[in-house]
Write a structure and sequence with these properties.
4 helices, elongated
Length: about 100
């Protein structure tokens, strides 16, 4: 089976998203979580396109477009989650190791 088959299969994106979010539980680096959320978002978009949620609008024509949109959503999610958690850390107490 080619990459075209797997990229346009929403179930594959859901599995990838769940695996990445589960990996974040063990890693804690805040990288796998936004990638998992982006994978779930792509699953919704791919399913929506196949179920004609967007009428006749074609969001993805090739597998390259799907991967580029995934990369864009992932970068945005990393930035948002890093911003939220860095902001929360500054509100908390000062670290005793900061000189």
């Amino acid at each position: 089976m080619s990459i075209h088959y797997w990229v346009f299969l929403p179930e594959a994106w859901v599995i990838l998203g769940i695996l990445l979010i589960a990996a974040e539980l063990f890693d804690g680096s805040m990288i796998a979580l936004p990638l998992g959320i982006a994978a779930l978002a792509i699953a919704v978009l791919v399913y929506g396109q196949s179920a004609l949620w967007f009428n006749e609008t074609v969001l993805f024509e090739t597998w390259r477009q799907v991967l580029m949109i995934y990369a864009g959503i992932a970068v945005v999610m990393v930035a948002i989650i890093r911003f939220v958690f860095q902001r929360r850390r500054k509100v908390e107490e000062e670290d005793v190791n900061d000189y």
